[in-house]
Amino acid sequence: MDAEGTSHLEWEEEYREKESSFGIFEVYRVTRVSPAGQRGNFVIVDAPDWVTIVPVLKDERGKECFLMVRQYRHGSRSVTLEFPAGVVEWQEEPDDAARRELIEETGRTAGNVVFLGKASPNPSFMCNTTYTFFASGLGDADEQSLDELEEVELEIVPVEEVISQMGIEPYDNAIMMSALAYYLRWKSGTESKVRAGRNRK
After folding, report:
1. Which of 48-52, 126-130, 172-176, 186-190 bottoms out in mean pLDDT, i.e. has the lowest?
2. What residue ranges define each of the domains in the chain, with the CATH number in brackets?
3. Which of 76, 100, 130, 131 could serve as 94's disulfide partner, Cβ 3.0–4.6 Å?
4. 116 burial type by CB count under 10 A (0-12 exposed, 13-18 middle, 19+ buried)
5. pTM of the prediction?
């Protein structure tokens, strides 16, 4: 449905004021009016965009694996196992951020980076976008370049394990679940194209 078809649902902003700034995001209080004349006050979180990178490699047995990071998350107060991820810096392109975060968190470069999709993490009160990329052709391991308060351990995990366990600790980060879904959709489409190409020969 195009924009004209949804205009009857869109609220008009009357007022906006920054309430607080917390470094990694800013909080705004806004007043908006619905097409029917309803007026309400809402809290909006203006956070930077994020990137998630799905790095794929083969282990010593030739099994397809993800390169993942294990770290403590202060919000959930738990240790999670995730794809490398981070914030898109000011005036930085998402694909550049993906390459940078991969190097910083894993010490690996990527020979190939493919955009898989983007989504709104929580459009009810957040303004940002999260971007997902696939990374392959990983370079040799080098030293990590972590932020001052970052403690990240690397782990190579079989793809089949991550698929079967996603949504269960330590694979319970919702953004990671979204990234895996994008990867599986992309891989399915890629394999379909390969099969179609073989059938044409």
Report:
1. 186-190
2. 9-46 (no CATH), 50-193 (3.90.79.10)
3. 131
4. buried
5. 0.89
What per-residue confidence (pLDDT) applies to 190?
A: 76
- Pairing relationship of beta strands 50-58 and 85-87 according to DSSP bridges: antiparallel
Answer for the pair 8, 35: CB distance below 8 angstroms, yes or no: yes
DSSP 8-state symbol, 88: P
pLDDT confidence of residue 121: 95
CA distance linking residue 99 with residue 131, whole number of Å? 12
pLDDT of residue 136: 97
Write the CA distances from 29 to 45, 71, 123, 129, integer angstroms: 9, 33, 15, 20
Query: What is the enclosing helix (H) or strand (E) of 54?
Result: strand 50-58
Instruction: Dig out the tokens for 85 from the structure.
Output: 């991820």
The residue written with tokens 């990137």 in the block is: 51
